[in-house]
Amino acid sequence: MNEFISQLLSGLATGGIYASMALALVMIYRSTHHVNFAQGEMAMFSTFLASMLIQAGWPYWATFFATVGIAFAMGAAIEMTLIRRLRNAPILSIVVVFVALLVILHSLAGWLFGYTIRSFPSPFAESTWYGSTLLSPHQIGAIGITLLMLALVYVFFRFSPLGLAMRATAENPVSSRLVGVRVNRMLALGWGLAGAIGAVAGMMIAPVVFLDVHMMSGVLIYAFAAAVLGGIASAWGAVVGGFIVGVLENLLGTYVVGSELKLSVALVLIIGVLVVRPSGLFGKAVVVRV
């Protein structure tokens, strides 16, 4: 029984990482109605930048906030220089660009930082009071940061004028322009926020899986499964889906399919949700009258 509880709690901790990445995917989807397949590589690249700052002698939390700012700027720059020019392009062209961006960032990171696996520090010391035999301080801290990000995103979109303008842009960009909303700026802001959230996810998972250019490949698949399960347009759904996927992956990988087939759990989940309930658990089905 203790082993089951340990696996359950460990799944929740892993699910917190998936939830963060799923939240980044939702941010871009709500802005552009496209899935950014390069989100994981953007997070990986940002984490390598954080590692460079730490090696240069920066304190962890100064590095953390600087990396979040750099990732925000990188996400906004990608939208302004690349994605904005493809706004009226066919969907297939946009998918190809996202895949190309994934490959470019992956190769660039290998060229700049190398393919050697590195350690990455955790901001949560092992001797802190909130650690336990079932969950490490880093696992508990990662869950807390995920929930804090969700709360901040909810407050931002629900109560701030800028968040309301972003929601309006996502729902109806034409009408938003007519009432004076700067749609291009809102889209860049959405990409920037997604980049910042992804960077946080990268810095939270790097102490667990170590830092290398491949570290986010599997995480992105689990995060996509979480976003699809919770609802690709729902921030709350993405976080809940992340925790569910983390628990399912851990329990099924331990007791049913084995560690070699753990990734198949996410793939089967994606297919099942798209077949049974494409809008996800918390998404809304869109009905178009013709």
Output the keywords:
ABC transporter involved in vitamin B12 uptake, BtuC; 0% strand; mainly alpha; 290 residues; 11 helices; globular
Short description:
The chain has 290 residues and is mainly alpha-helical.
Describe this structure in words.
It is a single chain. The chain is mostly helical and 290 residues long. The chain has a single domain, classed as Orthogonal Bundle (ABC transporter involved in vitamin B12 uptake, BtuC). The chain has helices spanning 2-32, 39-55, 60-81, 91-113, 137-159, 161-171, 173-178, 183-209, 217-230, 235-255, 262-276.
Q: Give the count of structural domains.
A: 1
Distance between the termini: 55 Å
Q: What is the CATH class?
A: Mainly Alpha
State the major sheet: none
Please name the CATH architecture: Orthogonal Bundle
Helix content, binned percent: over 70%
Enumerate how many helices there are, as a single number: 11
Percent strand equals under 5%
Q: Could you state the order of secondary-structure elements as H and E?
A: HHHHHHHHHHH
Rg for CA atoms: 19 Å
Low-pLDDT runs: none
Based on Cα principal axes, name the global outline: globular
**Which structural class matches the secondary elements?**
mainly alpha
Mean pLDDT: 84
